[in-house]
Structures are given as C-alpha cells and as structure tokens.
Description:
Radius of gyration: 19 Å
Strand content: 25-35%
Largest sheet: 5 strands, mixed
Amino acid sequence: SVPKGRxxxxxxxxxxxxxxxxxxxxxxxxxxxxxxxxxxxxxxxxIIKEGLDIxxxxxxxxxxxxxxxxVTSLKSVLCASKEYLERHGTPQKPGDLINHNCxxxxxxxxxxxxxxxxxxxxxxxxxxxxxxVNNSEALRESLVQGLGIGRLPTFIAGQHIKNGSxxxxxxxxxxxxxxxxxxxxxxxxLPEKVRVFIDYLIxxxxxxxxxxxxx
Length: 215
C-alpha cells in the first residue's frame, strides 16, 4: 500500500523541461520511497520494449493493450514578435502566410503545411521559410528574436504572449489540437507508484483549460 520502488517514465522533451521537471521534487518529497527515472525525448516510445512504467504521449494512440488516461489538452498558436509584425505586417487570413517567413518544426508530419479550422472545415495552407528546427524551444527563440511567424504549442508560447515578447496572430482561426495521455501497460493490479504519479500529474494540470492557455 506504500508507493515505492523504481518508477521509469518518458515524456516529450519541451513539455518535460517546462512542465514535468518542476513537479518532480515535490512528488519525490511526498513519496520518498520512489526512485524516479525520467527519459525526455520527442520520438514515439515503445513502452513495453523499453520497460517503462508510464509514457506521456501526445496525439492519436495506436490500438494496443495499453491503457491511456488524459492528462491535459495541447493546443497550438501562430505567433511572432511585435517587431517582426511591424516590419512585415500582420496576416489577416491564412492565405496571407505565403508572403511571410514561416519558421518550420521539422518533426511535424507535414512540415510545410499548416491547417486551420473554420466552421468545422479545415483549410490547409502551404508555407515556406528559411529555418527548420526539430525543437520547439529553439523555434520559439527564433520567433522572439523576430525571424518570422511560427506555430508553437501554447504550453511554450503562453508565458511569452503574457509578457509581450510574442504576439498571437490569426486567433479567429483554430488550429488542430492534441491530447496528452499518460500511457501504461494493462495490469490486473496497477502498481501504487504508477497510480500516484498519474494522479499527481492530473491534479497539477487542468485537463481542458491549463494555465498556459490563459493569457
């Protein structure tokens, strides 16, 4: 009945850095008999093959014997610095993006295409730019420094929109969103160390309106 033993988890790199790592010290102070091993990476995780207890994964989950619990919603926002928009203008509709330097996230399945949802219909726009990078925090830095317009997860962009270093654009056009799940193997008896960690995460994140979306 006492949560203890080695707990192996994985999570996406940027989300782990910004929102999971700050929670770990308090969790381990609350459960001192747990030894937590965390692996941060953006590639898909084979939880069984890698011997993990929990994997935090975003997006559609493949059919399997794994169990998934929703942790929080993950939205995206288009944004740029105030200086960039003053120099190049603010796009008023998705089609205007063809005239802008769009910074690209190279891990996305369709690198040079952004989708927007209006009236339940999705509009896709082909975009281009002079910088591709496979890390959202590096992408954010290029936007803050005025290189172009980019799509960022709101869990990265939120604090920068609040402090004014980034400005959201095309907000009336919604972008597809994902769900972050805690995925774990199906077992007859869920280990207490797994249960308390998942409950701890859910208690610290609003599942539908997380604080990083409140700007």
